[in-house]
Amino acid sequence: MAAIEMKNIVKQYGDGFPAVNDVSIDVADGEFMILVGPSGCGKSTLLRMIVGLEDITSGDMVVGGDRVNDLAPRDRNLSMVFQNYALYPHLTVYENIAFPLRLAGKDQKEIDEKVREASKTLDLDEHLDRRPANLSGGQRQRVAMGRAIVRDARAFLFDEPLSNLDAKLRGQMRAEISRLQKRLGITTVYVTHDQTEAMTLGDRVAVLKRGILQQLATPKELYEQPVNLFVAGFIGSPPMNFLPATVEGNDMSLPFGTFKIPDAKAEKTAGKGLLMAGIRPEHFEDVTMLEEGRAQSNQFEAQVDVREWLGDQQFAYIPYEAEQKVQDQLKELAKEVDSESLRTQLVVSLDSASEIQEGQTATLFINTERMHFFDPSTGENLTVGL
Ligand code: ATP
Question: Among the CATH numbers 3.90.1150.10, 3.40.50.11740, 3.30.70.360, 3.40.50.300, which is that of 4-229?
Answer without folding.
Answer: 3.40.50.300
